[in-house]
Amino acid sequence: MLTACRNLPWTILSLTCRRVCTRGSSISPSALCSPASTVSPIPPSLPSPTHSHSFLTSRQTSVPLHLSVHFSSARSFSHSTQCWGPMELKEVLQVLEQLAPLSLAESWDNVGLLVEPSKSRPVKSILLTNDLTDAVMQEAETMSCDLIISYHPPLFRPIKRLVQKDWKQRLAIRAVEAGIAVFSPHTSWDSVKGGVNDWLVGGLGSGQVSVLSQALGGASHCHKLEFTVRSAEELTAVMEELKAYDGGTTPQLSVSRPDNSGIHVSVTCSDSALTPSVHALLRHTTPSQSLSILKLEKPPLPGHGQGRLSVLDQPVTVATAIQKMKSHLGLSHLRLALGWGQTLESSVRTAAVCAGSGASVLTGVKADLYITGEMSHHEVLDAVAKGTSVLLSDHSNSERGFLAVFRERLAVRVPDSVTVVVSKADRDPLEVV
């Protein structure tokens, strides 16, 4: 990683990501120059920031955000865990966040800690399940489980009451009464590098894998204010005002060397702080005359996102692909729709996958084969008409096998005294009869 950068100092943000803050040398408001923050390089695959200078309409690629944690390198991030004693719930949540940051989840999703018991208790046992059902809850109660990690969120839509007649609410009530916490990762597991979709596409063998729907960084600071001040004293006064409007935290700041026109300043701020920050700057003569506002674009996160496309190192026939996926998913039957003009002996060189219900991600992707859990009748017809074969496993069958993989990755990050098990009661509600 770079340790000195004249234009792009980086600040370390949390255990899982690093974010470039602003261009220019990092300084405190009361001085023109101070030691730069810890810096890191821009990943070569990310675009460099570009500029536009028109007032209030400029757009700029936001500072790159690089997630340094993904499932495939989980062991390298294993902290030294005690071999005795359980963990606190908050410590387990920190580990889960390190493995798959919740910021990777889709905006419509409901992820994270969904049920938190009122009485805190150590986590001695963790149950992994694809869906939280009555059978799985009974299993959790029987084993005196402390934390259920349910891939699908059992609570998804807003609720106005907790009553027994709704089965999902009934399960939430049972969890609270039993003192069991419930956590859901859902699309954060789908998106993260080395997660559910990478596991799914790996069933066909090795290949050049790319992301179908690229994940973007969720930078909290999404605007850049550029202006000029006359002196370090004025800069200090301005920065104190801006700090008050951005949650009391010191705004990320960079300056360039002063010249005859003054000290050139660049500050980032959040959406909520934009309007009051602009009003504050307009009250100062020099900043108000030089102010420009740039909208920061969210940067792509290489390797993270929804869906995968694999260009196979060794092409296979459709028949072979079926057998490989049956073995990978642990299923005796799959549903197949052959693409127009295709046979079981047709070659599969490219395969696009999306765990669960994947039509929204797969539609329009050029590939010999689509692999997902479910698609509607007309979505299958559309794919077939374009010559793409479709392989369906039913929704949760395309996801459940990853639980065993995740169990191994979680187990190495918790003390030996914490039991991590995969549910035996969890299964897809559909079966071939």
Summarize this, please?
With 433 residues, the chain is an alpha/beta fold. It is built from twelve helices and 19 strands.
Characterize the structure shown.
It is a single chain. This protein has 433 residues and is α/β, with parallel strands linked by helices. The strands form four sheets. The chain has a six-stranded mixed beta sheet. α6 runs antiparallel to α7. The longest helix has 14 residues. It starts with 9 loop residues before the first strand and ends in an 11-residue tail after the last strand. The N terminus is likely disordered.
Total number of helices:
12
Number of E-type strands: 19
Outline the low-pLDDT stretches: 1-69, 72-83
Strand content: 25-35%
Mean pLDDT: 83
Largest sheet: 6 strands, mixed
Strand order in the largest sheet = 9-14-16-17-18-15
Report helical residue fraction. Answer: 25-40%
Shape: globular
Distance between the amino and carboxyl termini: 56 Å
Secondary-structure content class = alpha/beta
Over the alpha carbons, how many angstroms does the gyration radius reach?
A: 25 Å
Label this structure with key terms.
alpha/beta, 433 residues, 5-stranded mixed sheet, disordered N terminus, 6-stranded mixed sheet
